[in-house]
Amino acid sequence: MNKKLFSILFILFLACILSVSCSNKDKTGSGGNAKVDTTYKGNWYTADSQYLFMTVKDDGDVSFPGIESQGATGKKVEGSGSSYTVTYSGPGAPDLVLQITFTDSSTGTVKISQGGNDLGTDNIVKR
Fold first, then answer.
1. What does the pLDDT read at residue 7?
2. What pTM, to 2 d.p., does this model score?
3. Which residue in 125, 51, 38, 26 sits closest to 84, CA to CA?
């Protein structure tokens, strides 16, 4: 009886260890927090106005002040080189996706979509 109880407890212990070690939650990945190449750091404006559209900070963090002031609660940045995707999530609205393509160090485009609907493309310039 004692040996049988020990075997059952040992099997339960192994099952617990394996279930924890085989968890599918990857906590070591980038988490979608890519940094924009610092070649593009600075303030970016829509090409046809003086409207500050986007900022790339010294550390490569990218922000869209007009969107962030609306109360977006989450931001995910993916990409590398001259192409990046920034996804903002917020309460009560579908994700807003901005696809940035830098043509060179001072010009580019941003394609905006929300909930699968294309909202347009803006030409941007660094000033």
1. 54
2. 0.72
3. 38
